[in-house]
Amino acid sequence: MASVMLRILLLLVTLPLSAKAQTNGNLTLGSSLTADEQNSSWLSPSGEFTFGFRKMGQGAHLLAIWFEKIEDKTIVWSANGDNLAPEGSKIQLSTDSRLVLADPNGRELWSPNLTAAGVAHAAMLDTGNFVLVSQNYVHLWETFSQPTDTMLPTQQFDQGTKVNARYSKMNYSTGRFHFKLENDGNLAFYATSDPWLASDTYWASNTKDSGFRLIFNQTGQVYLTARNGTLLKPVTSNTVPTNEFYQRAILEYDGVFRQYVHPKGENSSSALALGWSMVSSPIPPNICESIRQTTGSGACGFNSYCALGDDQRPQCHCPPGYTPLDSTNEMNGCRQDFLPQSCDGSRPETDQFALHEMLRTNWPLNDYERTAAQTEDRCREACSADCFCAVAIFGGNGSCYKKKIPLSNGRTDPSEVGKALIKVRIKNSTSKSTGDGNKNSTLIIIGSVLLSSFVFVNLLLLLITYLIYRSFRSKDSKLSRPVQINQATGMQTFTYQELQKATDEFKEELGRGAFGIVYKGVLGSEDTNFVAVKVLATRTGESEKEFEREVSAIGRTDHKNLVQLLGYCNEGQHRLLVYEFMSNGTLADFLFGASRPSWYRRTEIACDVARGLSYLHQDCTRHIIHCDIKPQNILLDGSLTAKISDLGLAKLLMANQTRTNTGVRGTRGYLAPEWFRNMPISSKVDVYSFGILLVELICCRKNYKPEAEIEAQIVLVDWTYDCYHDGSVLKLVESDEEASSDIKRVRRFVMTALWCIQEDPTLRPTMKEITQMLEGAVEVPVPPAPSSFMSSI
């Protein structure tokens, strides 16, 4: 009895603390929230929306509203994206009827502009609207009237309302894209935040003099109305009911307006439950082609080009000879990776440059000279001889357009008829520090004087003596000699002590492999800045080679479908690798777990892995064969984007090399036959492994299942071919309603997989071709019968 009373007393003591952490209902004058570790917040009555602080980095907080019952806590409104609040800042509904965000020193960071005085209380509503209310329950201010980048059901925009995209995916400061319901009734999208440069629209509703209000209604449709309230023009076509799905429409950082839905409560086991799913067509459908600015960079940054991905999202790339300005934001543009052509007439350099072809690529509206009736050879000669020419576009009609740096409006698309000729320096193409002839001559003279001086000779002798001494010392200290890592990777280095502290003495294990164990860690004082720390096993020759391989291979890669290597520790006998943390674990756990992932998500993962492999095989400076593609080496981030990990077994090839000889690497069940036949291996071994993985993704089961009730189904690839040969592909997904309704794509994926697992490596397509097959960009020919998978085990 005493113990029961004690529990009741403890419960009563803790109730006020819980109430402080999350408060529902009206907020009276004096109510406040503090940006600290307690994560206090104001909830809507149903608990579906939250008003409070979100951490945006070490000691920085964003005042925001988000979906509370969704795993990723999607933000729908923010107050201070351009001026993040430091730790200890406070938002308070002050006694003088103002809502004020102030830093710990009392300096005001943000406060809404009220049109009238007399705030009596505030409230976080179940619609996602945060309101300041008078004594008579009149809304004196509301977030619905001051949107950031998102629109919610029941929200309405009047003429003059402006919506700004954020700067990047995780940066909530104001970006360069926005749309506005103009005072004349036209809904217009702009690619610049500067009103003086807003003459170029990339999408418009064409409702000038008739549009009056933009509405997101409860049936899930966004549309424009006339002044009398009649529907004037639908903006989106979605009609998913809001009582079953959360919904939002957002102008994303890439400038595209998209509408998303997410199932509620009991629908959480549905096909859409794995995250937000886009419904309705994006606006504009192809932003790469829609933006043709006379001022500005276009859809992507300067000197880059835009390509529409299979997910209808714009992707920004650098042309040959150019590298990204900011590796964390692909939309920031590119810079030349070489010295531009000299315009000094006494030093002609025409023989030091080559013109790289890019088909169906253009940088429109950036010409400084145009010439008609040209041949391609004459166009090439004209650009080569012109020191101002960075790119020439040879049109199908014989026209030649010369372009200077910076390049703008870049795009590649099947609709483009031009061929881009990109000028790139042949020699010293990555050097920007080469001096002129006089400087070189001066250096030669200085060097000669030093070499002939007595002091230099003595210094040289001392250096040789020191090196000899070090070589003898190194024999005794070989076990603590750090592995040599190419410093050109530019990655962060950590001390062993730092990583020991970051992982809390290597406390939480995430997984383990042949060469080491992976632990969860957190960098700095930011408790959400998680990383994965891979501790390599005891120092053997092979583990050191693996360390060098992984750092060298992945340190120079930069692709959204590869796990990012953040840094490493190379201290004494300690070899550790620090990766970005992938919150959703491995594809193996995701695919073979208790609940089956949606067909849509499985197709996205297949395309993600294909793109990552295509990059490794063809787009890296050193082409890379992964050698161990399997579900355990595919990781999933917070949005379930698939990323390839574990390049420890990778084989690097030179740019002109296509195959190599090496010992067997990888995991049984995913190994190509040539591994067992002492044949030179090529990137086609990854293609074979991907084929096995693709079949597993299609059928949502492991390739080898000895407990299968039907003997023909024990080996999945054999059963897959039997079903394809018999015209009964539907059997593979018959228990999957979503996949069964998309049987055309299922058949395309099956045919692609059967091409991948051909016994003859020369019959297998490249990963680039496979990506096109999966995306439906090319027709998949009828595959021949593959050899039995079991014969290669």
Automatic annotation (TrEMBL):
* Subcellular locations according to the entry: Membrane
Q: Which residues bind ATP?
A: 534
Q: How does it sit in the membrane?
A: Single-pass type I membrane protein
**TM helices/strands, residue ranges:** 443-469
Q: Quick one: a GO cellular component term?
A: membrane
Q: Where does the Protein kinase domain lie? A: 504-778
Q: What is its main location?
A: membrane
> EC number(s) of the enzyme?
2.7.11.1
Which molecular function GO terms apply here? ATP binding; carbohydrate binding; protein serine/threonine kinase activity
Kindly give the InterPro entries that the UniProt entry links to this protein.
Answer: Bulb-type_lectin_dom (IPR001480), Bulb-type_lectin_dom_sf (IPR036426), G-type_lectin_kinases/EP1-like (IPR051343), Kinase-like_dom_sf (IPR011009), Prot_kinase_dom (IPR000719), Protein_kinase_ATP_BS (IPR017441), Ser/Thr_kinase_AS (IPR008271), SRK-like_kinase (IPR024171)
Taxonomically, the superkingdom here is Eukaryota
Q: What residues does the Bulb-type lectin domain cover?
A: 24-145
The similarity annotation says: Belongs to the protein kinase superfamily. Ser/Thr protein kinase family.
Stated name of the protein = Receptor-like serine/threonine-protein kinase
